[in-house]
Amino acid sequence: MFKNAINGLTTAWRGLTLTIKHLFTSNAKREIIPITDDNYFKQQQNTNTIQYPKQQLPVPEVGRYQLDVEIDDCIVCDLCAKICPVSCIDIESIKSTEGSIGETSDGSKKLLYAAKFDIDMAKCMYCGLCTIVCPTECIVMTNQYDRTVFELKDLNYEFSDMKPEDAAEKRRLLEQQQAEKQAAKLAALKAKEEGK
Ligand code: SF4
Ligand code: SF4
């Protein structure tokens, strides 16, 4: 019993000294310094809180945070969606009926419209694979980490700039073109058979 009492007192004393230490150190002012500074990790030990958002901790240059897509540079190849381990990228492409619809900033030809390009950041595990496979480097991880939302659905980011009515029109044109091609094929086949 005596041993238990000593143990209890020692533990309480340790806890109390730690609390008192933090009480004083948490008031210590800290400078915001880059993560590359030799003093960076030393400085973490004496501070419990910072006055966010007035003060913000620097983020590493290679940090993986919020994804962003420069949709004008996207060729809608779907590689990012295919490689994503958690299937949080949802793309709907529509083939252009008039061939090339423009070029990306690196000169890649654009042949598909992005009717839908959604990324559900609530599911994303920030692996960065999508940014590695992208041939035009238009999907990138930014240094933005503060994306607090009230509703989970608000973490679904829509990058397509196509209006639903425009997408519907492009789908209609494609279906019409495919039907015309099919009809032409059948007519050619029929003519061939009749010519035998
Ligand atoms: S970072 Fe990883 S999990 Fe997130 S969208 Fe890209 S591939 Fe998917
Ligand atoms: S990999 Fe890049 S170019 Fe291909 S669909 Fe994704 S963002 Fe667009």
TrEMBL record:
Superkingdom in the source lineage: Bacteria
4Fe-4S ferredoxin-type domain sequence ranges: 63-94, 115-144
GO molecular function terms attached to this record: 4 iron, 4 sulfur cluster binding; metal ion binding; oxidoreductase activity, acting on NAD(P)H
Cellular component, GO, one term: membrane
Coiled-coil annotated residue ranges, if any: 167-196
InterPro entries, per database record: 4Fe4S_Fe-S-bd, 4Fe4S_Fe_S_CS, NADH_quinone_OxRdtase_chainI
Pfam family, one: Fer4_7
Keywords assigned by UniProt, alphabetized: 4Fe-4S, Coiled coil, Iron, Iron-sulfur, Metal-binding, Repeat
Protein name, UniProt field: 4Fe-4S dicluster domain-containing protein
Organism of provenance: Mucilaginibacter segetis
